[in-house]
Amino acid sequence: MDYSEQEERSTISESGSSNSYDQQRPSFADELGLMELLEGDRAYDLIYRNCKSALGDQCELLSILRNGFATVGSRAKLKAFQVFQEAVEMKHVGEGGGKARVKYGWCAVKKTELKSVLEYGFSQPRNDGCYGRGLYLSPDNALLECLKDSAAESEDGMRFLLLSRVILGKSEIVPLGSTQSCPSSPEFDSGVDDLASPSKYIVWSTHMNTHVLPEFLVCIKAPFNINRSAKRLRSPWMAFPVLIKALSKFLPPSQILIIQKHYKDQQKKCGAGDGPVWYCAALLDEEDVRGDRTSVGTGTAT
């Protein structure tokens, strides 16, 4: 989805805006060179529908602001992004028309980080590191995934989400537990957790300030427990001991020990959850695991 086909200036007129909007408008907007968007603006309407579709009535959308690239630093970032977009297009000439595959992605930020991110870029990878060292963004149709990494800024549940343009170029699959910090070869430009239906765009730390351009800031109020609901598993789940018992039916003890070791290592790195289980399962033959997963039944995560 392309949110950027709009007039260069905000739809708020210089004659003023409604009092209700002024009450919700972030006080830092002018300082950061952010321009308000209102209902009727193409970008506003697209983002609003996206948010309502993903979050329903559990969140209140307070305001949508567009980066005006008003400072010297932000304008330099815009030019750098355009240069790297052209470079990636030239790199892949002959591969489906030489496209840079620019997508939109969501990233949660703290209020205290906004100024430095918009002016200078991301200072360090902002994630749990389970898919390598880089900046993780959720596709524009996976806003709920982004909320996993967000935290309420105040008692009223205010959160800040950046919607950025992302140069993906040619993506490679990055497995859970990877320690990768740059493309595995010059052929690739970015990473994803799944090629067919990614829930994470992985922009390496070497690329995160040239291949990511924050374009919109969305301010919402969300309940404090939305992080937990966002993390609910969407697929069948089984406890690790149950998985080990099932796999022991057709794997030798030596391989079971390897799986247990990988599980413990990943649990220390990524924390408790289903991630380490399926990372270990991925070490095995996928069809065997899928079949056995079905045979032992499914459970519900608590």
TrEMBL record:
InterPro entries: Poly(ADP-ribose)pol_cat_dom (IPR012317), RCD1/SRO1-5 (IPR044964), RST (IPR022003)
Taxonomy, superkingdom: Eukaryota
Localization terms from the record: Nucleus
Disordered: region residues: 1-24
PARP catalytic domain boundaries: 19-241
Compositional bias of kind Polar residues: 12-24
Any Pfam family matching the protein: RST
Biased composition (Basic and acidic residues): 1-11
Boundaries of every RST domain copy: 231-269
Cellular compartments per GO CC: nucleus
Keywords assigned by UniProt, alphabetized: Developmental protein, Nucleus, Stress response
GO molecular function, one term: NAD+ poly-ADP-ribosyltransferase activity
PANTHER family tied to this protein: INACTIVE POLY [ADP-RIBOSE] POLYMERASE SRO4-RELATED
Name of this protein: PARP
Organism: Brassica cretica (Mustard)
